[in-house]
Design goal:
Length: 83
């Protein structure tokens, strides 16, 4: 699925204008957005895998809460928002 954005230099056009025109053409064709989507693509995990991960997280949270109650672990302060 190759989409080429091609521009040719006009008479009396400098390099900066040519690059600007090329950038606009690429942006208009949606190439940058498509490449970003491809770059960060991740496969959808199956229902069973998601379920196992969720159960593991729930179990770990329960263990941490138990350790906090026993005084063997210090409770972390709540996250603060970005400034």
């Amino acid at each position: 699925m190759a989409t080429n954005a091609e521009v040719s230099k006009n008479d009396g056009e400098n390099a900066i204008n040519l690059i600007r025109r090329f950038s606009k053409r690429v942006q208009g064709a949606g190439l940058i957005q498509r490449m970003r989507n491809r770059r960060y693509y991740s496969r959808i995990k199956s229902r069973e895998v998601r379920r196992k991960q969720t159960l593991k997280v729930i179990k770990r949270r329960a263990e941490v809460q138990e350790l906090i109650k026993l005084g063997k672990m210090v409770e972390r302060p709540a996250h603060r928002g970005r400034r």
